[in-house]
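Suppose a colleague, Dr. K., hands you the sequence of a protein chain of 85 amino acids and asks what its three-dimensional shape might be. Before reaching for any lab equipment, you can write down a predicted structure in token form. Begin with the sequence itself:
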Amino acid sequence: MTNDLTTEQIAQHYTAMGHSVDLINSGQPEGLPDEDWADAVSRNVEHLQIMVAKDFWTTEDLTAVDEILRQVEAGDLVVAAAETK
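The predicted structure, expressed as tokens, is then:
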């Protein structure tokens, strides 16, 4: 299925990854509860992990994505585990 993606669709995925990177790098907004921030970071890191594993990337620069994932792996960016209620 990934082989059927158009250049425009790949660009949309790349843009969405950039939004995740920007959100994480911008830091916790003032007034946002810690629990909500942890959830947002967790969901965006998961999104990056899923997307970077896709096989349709060609010449896109994934450096910023790789850096976020490196920080997670090194423990420099803590991602809260999802809670079940």
